[in-house]
Design a protein that fits this description.
Blueprint lengths: L9 H10 L7 E4 L4 E3 L15 H6 L7 E4 L5 H8 L4 E5 L2 H10 L4 E3 L12 E6 L10 H13 L1 E12 L7 H12 L6 E8 L2 E2 L3 E4 L3 H8 L4 E8 L4 E8 L1
Parallel strand pairs: 3-4, 3-6, 4-5, 6-7
Antiparallel strand pairs: 1-2, 1-8, 7-12, 8-9, 8-10, 11-12
Helix pairs in contact: 1-4
C-alpha cells in the first residue's frame, strides 16, 4: 500500500486526535468480518518505561543510523534521538508523520516502506517495533523488502523485527481464517485488514503475523539470518536479523 490520502487515514487520524486530547480507539477489521480493538493510540505514544519488556531489551542492540519503519507517533524515534542516534522515521500515514514532526522527530518522512530508498550503507539498524514486521505482507514481498534493506544498510547492520506467532491462539475464528489462507496458497498469518476510526477507514491491506520459523524462512536468500529471538510472555517476539 502506498501513501494514504488524508480522507482515508484512519490510523493517523486516531493519533492526531489522541495528541489533541480527543478520545480515540483503533478498530481493526479483517476481510472475513472479524473485528477487534487494538491496544489503541496510547501505545503509539508510550514512554520507554511503558514499552513491552522485549522492546526495552531489543532496543539496546541499536547501533549506527536508525531507520524506524512504520514510525507512527515516533515513540521509538524520539527515544533514540534523545540518546544521540540519528533516526529516520517513515510512515505512509500523513497524519502520523504530522504528529511525529510536532512531537520533535527531526527526520520524519511520508513514504511507504515499499517505496523508500536510501544509498548503500546508510543505516546500521532497522527497527520494526509494534508488530511492524507485519508490513512485509507475505513471503514474496517480505523477501523483496529484505533484499532492499540489505542494500541500504552497513555491513554490520541489524533488523529488530517484532512479530506475533499466529499459531499461538485459541480463537476458533483465527484457526478457521488460517486454514482458508493455506487453502488459497497464502501464509497462515497473512491477514487482509483495514483500520477504522470514527467514519474513516483505510483501504484494505495485507499484514503478516509470522512464526519464528517463518521469519527464518523469509530471511533465506536475502543476505540476512535470524541470530536470536527475544520472547514475551505471550505470542509476540522480536527477531534479531543480521547480515550473513
Amino acid at each position: 500500500m502506498g501513501v494514504l490520502a488524508k480522507k482515508v487515514d484512519a490510523y493517523g487520524l486516531e493519533m492526531r486526535d489522541y495528541l489533541n486530547g480527543i478520545g480515540s480507539a483503533e478498530i481493526c477489521e479483517r476481510q472475513d468480518g472479524y473485528v477487534a480493538l487494538s491496544s489503541g493510540p496510547a501505545a503509539y505514544f508510550a514512554e520507554f518505561k511503558d514499552w513491552p519488556e522485549m522492546e526495552r531489551r531489543a532496543i539496546r542492540l541499536a547501533r549506527g543510523r536508525v531507520l524506524d519503519v512504520g514510525c507512527g507517533a515516533a515513540r521509538v524515534g524520539l527515544y533514540l534521538q534523545k540518546k544521540g542516534f540519528k533516526v529516520t522515521g517513515i510512515d505512509n500515514s500523513p497524519f502520523a508523520i504530522e504528529v511525529s514532526r510536532k512531537r520533535g522527530l527531526a527526520d520524519a518522512r511520508l513514504v511507504s516502506v515499499t517505496e523508500f530508498t536510501a544509498p548503500p550503507g546508510t543505516y546500521g539498524t532497522i527497527v520494526m517495533f509494534g508488530n511492524n514486521f507485519g508490513l512485509m505482507g507475505g513471503m514474496k514481498r517480505g523477501k523483496w523488502l529484505l533484499r532492499r534493506f540489505h542494500g541500504m544498510t552497513t555491513p554490520d547492520a541489524r533488523i529488530l523485527a517484532e512479530s506475533n506467532d499466529p499459531y499461538h491462539t485459541d480463537v476458533p475464528e483465527h484457526h478457521g481464517y488460517q486454514r482458508e489462507n493455506r487453502r488459497r496458497g497464502r501464509m497462515s498469518g497473512q491477514l487482509r485488514l483495514r483500520v477504522r476510526h470514527r467514519k474513516c477507514a483505510t483501504p484494505w491491506f495485507d499484514y503478516l503475523l509470522a512464526s519464528k520459523e517463518e521469519m527464518e524462512e523469509m530471511a533465506k536468500g536475502t543476505g540476512w539470518r535470524a541470530t536470536r529471538f527475544i520472547d514475551s510472555k505471550g505470542s509476540a517476539y522480536i527477531g534479531v536479523l543480521e547480515k550473513e
